[in-house]
Amino acid sequence: VLYMRGRLAEMKGNLEEARQLYDEALTVNPAGVEIMHSLGLVLSRLGRRDLAQKVLRDAIRIQTTSHRAWNSLGEVLQAQGKNEAAVECFLTALDLESSSPVIPFTVIPREL
């Protein structure tokens, strides 16, 4: 519920409120990669790129195959002028995305 409220706040442009809600959501689910990803994006938009980078790296440590987190980390690094590191992240994201399922396996019905 906190994560969804954060997404709504983010969509409305209430970035500070979204950040607070994502922080609260992480206290409930500290290993929530999607929450970390969203928090990282909001922190970057708020200009807090060092913290955004840390949060996105934490997400990647938990789920190394998250192409979205790798891509977002690349965007943060690029905004910081760390172009070589950004390129590595973008290439990793592309490689992971090419082997990522179109629909997450958790969504596919058990019987077709």
UniProtKB/TrEMBL annotation:
Signal sequence, start to end: none
CC per GO annotation: plasma membrane
Keywords carried by this UniProt record: TPR repeat
Domain of life per record: Eukaryota
GO BP terms: phosphatidylinositol phosphate biosynthetic process; protein localization to plasma membrane
Gene3D superfamilies linked: Tetratricopeptide repeat domain
Name used for this protein in its record: Tetratricopeptide repeat domain 7A
Extent of the TPR repeats: 67-100
Lineage summary: Eukaryota, Metazoa, Chordata, Craniata, Vertebrata
Organism name: Hypotaenidia okinawae
